[in-house]
Specification:
The protein has a single domain, classed as Arc Repressor Mutant, subunit A. The protein has four helices and three strands; from the N terminus they run αβααββα. Helix 1 crosses helix 3. The chain is globular and about 40 Å long. The two termini are 23 Å apart.
Amino acid sequence: MSNAPSPQETVAKRILFIMVNEQGLRAGDGMSPDNLTHDLTRHDIDQVQQQEAIEFAKDKGWLRDGPYGELQLTETGFAVD
């Protein structure tokens, strides 16, 4: 049996990479859904993949909804390799 990550996990980790390495976000920082969608589209990640990966990341505690509708990076999400 393979320990390969699921497609959702792979895309979720790419989202974290974009937020931390491209946008310079830290734990507690947020990104608007529109800006995130723009960046993910630029990385050839379609809407369905985006939604599935965001839900995966929320379930893992990597991301959460912020008070102003933004997607916030958690301490756990910031620490993911």
